[in-house]
Inverse folding.
């Protein structure tokens, strides 16, 4: 059997789980729904499935690039970050970049606070296992080195990207700013966005999958040979997911996500912390926003 079986189970349980190698080599019409059910059920029963399923669902709720399209279905005044700036209804009096602020804050709630609740009360694991602790002693020099390695070479690419019309027309999401203070307040709130985006991919998804042991997913087949089921494949999974989330972005950014997703994932995995990556990503985008403001 490719998938494990247990005695005295219901016909439904056997239908869902009993998929032999012979059946996969000679499938029938019942193989299709069985494979579908076998894929969905781990979302509720096994930690790897719960991590993958909850990541997918939370990103879907946050929407295209954090646009929260579902929110617009129940709140007609909602437009989304960077949309109809200067003409949209006011949602938060006194804050002209209210759509952006709400997107950042709700993204943080969805992609950080909800997974934290799952980690603590469903998986019953320490948050440090998911990269939320500071770099451990002995890896702090490496953390500084990887921060500089990610940030300094990227400055040139971000500076050049700001001169491309498709980039400076998109960034910053809100403009014009009435003062330097308003720009600083916006960029500080923007940090919530980068904590969310880095944690969901480089923390929750990467560390969550990379730390799954073979013994925790017995009878499922596949995986890497050794103690860990996903191992370094988790780096590839988070990079592919991160790149897919950027589909529709300007080409320089879209292709840059392949490099950033792999480099940032490797850095976080090596130093066991997302925080140097979060800081680098945020500062680079503050720089991008500041340079982009020079263009009409």
């Amino acid at each position: 059997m490719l998938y494990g079986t247990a005695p005295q189970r219901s016909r439904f349980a056997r239908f869902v789980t009993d998929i032999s190698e012979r059946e996969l080599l000679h499938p029938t019409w019942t193989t299709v729904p069985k494979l579908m059910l076998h894929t969905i059920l781990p979302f509720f029963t096994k930690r790897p499935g719960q991590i993958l399923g909850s990541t997918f669902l939370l990103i879907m709720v946050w929407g295209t690039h954090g646009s929260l399209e579902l929110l617009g279905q129940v709140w007609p005044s909602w437009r989304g970050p960077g949309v109809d700036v200067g003409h949209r209804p006011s949602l938060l009096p006194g804050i002209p970049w209210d759509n952006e602020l709400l997107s950042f804050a709700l993204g943080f709630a969805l992609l950080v606070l909800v997974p934290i609740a799952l980690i603590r009360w469903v998986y019953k694991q320490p948050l440090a296992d998911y990269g939320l602790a500071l770099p451990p002693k002995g890896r702090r020099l490496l953390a500084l080195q990887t921060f500089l390695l990610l940030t300094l070479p990227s400055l040139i690419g971000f500076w050049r990207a700001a001169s491309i019309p498709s980039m400076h027309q998109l960034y910053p999401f809100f403009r014009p700013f009435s003062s330097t203070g308003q720009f600083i307040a916006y960029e500080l709130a923007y940090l919530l966005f980068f904590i969310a985006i880095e944690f969901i991919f480089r923390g929750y998804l990467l560390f969550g999958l990379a730390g799954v042991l073979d013994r925790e997913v017995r009878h499922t087949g596949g995986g890497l040979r050794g103690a860990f089921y996903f191992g370094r494949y988790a780096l590839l999974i988070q990079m592919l997911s991160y790149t897919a989330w950027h589909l529709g972005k300007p080409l320089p950014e879209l292709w840059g996500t392949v490099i950033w997703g792999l480099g940032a994932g490797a850095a976080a995995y090596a130093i066991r912390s997302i925080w140097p990556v979060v800081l680098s990503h945020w500062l680079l985008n503050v720089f991008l926003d500041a340079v982009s403001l020079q263009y009409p």
Remarks:
- The two ends are 64 Å apart (CA to CA).
- The chain has 13 helices and no strands.
